[in-house]
Specification:
Blueprint: E1 2-11, E2 22-37, E3 42-46, E4 50-52, H1 61-71, E5 79-85, H2 95-111, H3 117-123, H4 125-132, H5 138-145, E6 148-151, E7 158-159, E8 166-172, H6 179-192, H7 194-217, H8 220-236, H9 242-253, E9 258-262, E10 269-274, H10 277-287, E11 292-296
Parallel strand pairs: 3-5
Antiparallel strand pairs: 1-2, 2-5, 2-6, 3-4, 6-7, 8-10, 8-11, 9-10
Helix pairs in contact: 1-4, 2-4, 2-5, 3-5, 6-7, 7-8
């Protein structure tokens, strides 16, 4: 059974696009896939009810991505790949990367190919390029490898270590979000007021570096405060919706150590940091339908 994790960016989204560092985690909710010999290549995705064939010139990104993955194998039989997706699409949790990693992992298993999870992450870039053109590499790497890591575009991930797990509660706003549009919005702001946005990015970098120290020291109270500050800076760039802001505030009022949006913003997801597993379960109820708990070991 192939598996690709979802991911959460703890701190640093948007700034990371412009060369600043970010911290990301891989979560144990994602995509499971299985590949079997068949008469024709086919990809099935549930619970979406999608069934498609590879097409390098297809109109759907999934058709082109599936074709790109299959073309990366020199020899193989025709395969039917069935994938079950446990993540909302376009919500900042790395859904596309998780599908790509799971599909590759399932094909590898079906044909007896062995590679490390790091090699699997590298292979999944062919899938991610279809969706994002020039992906940073963080989504597919966290999906394949997991854990907690410091990331800067163009540089290898730096794993972070701690003796305390992170208890995260992820809430879904139900609002659709376009990463492309949100990234373009921040880029426009940078062009129109470089001094203000650069100052914001510099502030985010300071938070990321302090968060690295807090994670390694197991100081989750300090980490929660840094999350709140990062949320404020992202909101100053008009990336937070009223719904997401209300969800973050509700989590804080219910005892979360900190809460912020994750991913591109403009919709999608937020997350809260809980002190203990029991408190995470309680926060899940506060955040409502679609919320789930993710425990991440650094």
């Amino acid at each position: 059974m192939g598996f690709g994790r979802g991911k959460v960016i703890l701190l640093g989204e948007h700034a990371v696009v412009h060369g600043y560092p970010a911290i990301a985690v891989g979560i144990e909710r994602g995509v499971h896939a299985e590949a079997q010999p068949a008469k024709h290549d086919r990809l099935r995705l549930s619970p979406w009810g999608l069934e498609l064939e590879p097409a390098s010139d297809g109109t759907e990104p999934l058709e082109r991505a599936f074709a790109a993955v299959l073309e990366s194998y020199e020899e193989r039989p025709p395969l039917e790949v069935s994938a079950t997706v446990e993540l909302p699409a376009g919500a900042g949790l790395g859904c596309s990367a998780a599908i790509g990693v799971a599909v590759l992992d399932a094909i590898d298993e079906a044909i007896g190919r062995r590679r490390t999870r790091a090699e699997l992450a590298e292979a999944a870039l062919v899938w991610e390029r279809v969706f994002h053109g020039n992906p940073s590499g963080v989504d597919n790497t966290m999906s394949a490898v997991g854990g907690v890591a410091l990331f800067r575009r163009g540089e290898p991930l730096v794993p972070l270590r701690s003796n305390k797990p992170l208890h995260l509660v992820i809430g879904y706003s139900g609002e659709s979000s376009s990463t492309k549009e949100m990234v373009a919005s921040v880029r426009r702001q940078l062009e129109e007021d470089r001094a203000r946005v650069t100052q914001t990015f510099d502030g985010i970098e300071t938070l990321v570096r302090n968060a690295k120290l807090a994670i390694e020291a197991g100081d989750h109270v300090a980490l929660g405060q840094l999350l709140d500050l990062n949320h404020t800076l992202l909101s100053s760039m008009m990336l937070c919706t009223t719904k997401l802001d209300a969800m973050c505030q509700a989590a804080r009022e219910a005892g979360a150590l900190g809460a912020k949006i994750t991913g591109a913003g403009g919709g999608g997801c937020m997350f809260a940091l809980a002190a203990k597993r029991e408190e995470a379960a309680r926060l899940k109820d506060v955040l409502g339908e679609g919320a789930f708990v993710a425990e991440v070991s650094a």
